[in-house]
Amino acid sequence: MNHLPSFTAAFYKYGFTFKPDIQLKESDVVKYGGNIVTDRFGTLEVEFHFKNSDLIEFPSAYLQNRSVAGLEPYIFPHLDCKWKLCYEDGSRDFDVYNPYGVVNFCISSVKNVLEYTPYNDIEEIWREFRQYWCADLSYHGDIQNELNNVYLVDKKVLSSKENIWGHDTDGLQKIRIFDLEDLPILNADWPPTNFESIKAWLKDYEIIFNDIKKAILDGIRFNGTNVLFRVKSRNLVFGFFFGPLSSIHSNGRRPVRSRVARDLFASNTYIVKRIWVDNYSKSILLTANTPKDTTLDNKKILLLGLGTIGSNLAPLIIRNGAGNGPSGRLQLIDNDIYEPYNLSRHYLGIKATGYYKTEVLKYKLLEDFPFSKIDMFSECITQHSLKGYDLILDTTGEIAITTWLAEKILSLKKSGKESPDLISIWIKGQGQYVQSYLVSAQNLTCHQCIKVKKYSSDQHEDIILRDSCRSVFIPFPISASLYASLLGVHVLKKWLKNDFSSNFFEQKLDPVSEITEESILPMEKCLLCG
């Protein structure tokens, strides 16, 4: 369905007309131009640009008046170097079936930004500085504050061997990084395009001018070089690439002579490209969407059982901080070998066949999360010490192992010895329920009491034999495994918040219900916890 006529009519109602674009490279852009009257700046000419005729998102707004005092990029927040004004924050849905409402929102929002945005709001400007910088090259970085040299590889800027991508920095060319106390206020043509405009912008940092000049000369001579600036207080990293205007000057093979480079520098005959680096750290990556009180950072976690639940839970808890922080680590334990029939419900793929699950999962996790500290143990849990852990996550689904763990941990806690807490997670039956059980100093109910309370004698489960002795296979869908993993995350968050009001958690899956929580007390005559 063609919505252009209705939007053209809506814009026309507000005095905006359709503007055909005769430039072939922008032939898909749909433009509407008109005037917006403001009390602050008078009448301003504005163009709204849709990316194409599909009309699936709000148009960009571009100011056409380039000489209005106070209305300049970097001086006026929300206005970038291409004179595009940010007027909507993504919180409103674009409704293609309501063209008059959309157009009214666009025009009134632009007017509101123009009328009420304060000048030189430096806090707002530094938050939006990427838009003002108008970078030609964009990289991702792991740049630590204390280092003055970094490395560029695969569009990533690395500060050391221990970077979040796990890249080796041996043999890579160093890039100089200069520290700025804060963002300099604009005092030159923006954005900087040559050495003179860089000097004018960084006039308070004269001490680094010679280094920048040398970098430009090196770039002209050696086919390109980079210079970066870092504002530590803002976690901003940006800079320049300097290079020869064409391969003719550098011959593509060997450096040009110093005298020729100086002549090219004096005549501004060189390329300047602005660089932007999205700078990250492990803490930023792992806490961007996680409240500080629900992170597993610095926790010592033992994940027991790397089957259908444990393998899917592992990447979730790493994203929540497991295996990170100065004292954090993640221990994987399973003595099982991956077989092809695991494929339909396991995190690992068919290439893991014939290997210990611990080995392949550790390799896979470190490939995805190279900054994490992960250990493995491919033997039975009874051969491994339980000391030194904050928490054990039991995803074996084997009652005997869960009972053994609960007994060991409860005995330690009752004797006052240091011991981990325990969260056990399993799937009931053929995926009808997912359940979890928590043992902590505040909840000392043993697994046997949970079992007696929650499983009556008539709750027999149909178990399907796969093909031979000791070869039991209970069919259930992968969705049950994922729900069990998410139930484990739910219980983990309560544990991290020291919320021990419940020790048994359950979610029905057919149909899917909300998670129910219950506090089950020890039975009076229980030998272990009563």
Search tags:
single chain, 530 residues, alpha/beta, Ubiquitin Conjugating Enzyme, Rossmann fold, 3 domains, eight-stranded mixed β-sheet, seven-stranded mixed barrel, 14 helices, 20 strands, globular
Characterization of the model:
The chain has 530 residues and is an alpha/beta fold. The protein has three domains: 4-127, Ubiquitin Conjugating Enzyme (Roll), CATH 3.10.110; 135-280, no CATH class; 286-518, NAD(P)-binding Rossmann-like Domain (Rossmann fold), CATH 3.40.50.720. Helix content is 27%, strand content 22%. The protein is built from 14 helices and 20 strands. Strands 15-14-13-16-17-18-19-20 form an eight-stranded mixed sheet, sandwiched between helices. The chain has a seven-stranded mixed beta barrel with strand order 6-8-7-9-10-11-12. It has a five-stranded antiparallel sheet with strand order 1-2-3-4-5. A hairpin with a 2-residue loop joins strand 7 (149-153) and strand 8. The radius of gyration is 31 Å and the shape is globular.
Q: What is the CATH top level name of the largest domain? A: Alpha Beta
> Helical proportion?
25-40%
CATH superfamily of the largest domain: NAD(P)-binding Rossmann-like Domain
Shape: globular
Give the overall average pLDDT. Answer: 86
Extract low-pLDDT stretches: 456-460
Number of separate strands:
20
Number of helices: 14
Distance between the termini: 70 Å
CATH architecture annotation name of the largest domain: 3-Layer(aba) Sandwich
Topology-level CATH name of the largest domain: Rossmann fold
Residues in β-strands, percent: 15-25%
Strand order of the largest sheet: 15-14-13-16-17-18-19-20
Largest sheet composition = 8 strands, mixed
Radius of gyration: 31 Å
Structural class: alpha/beta
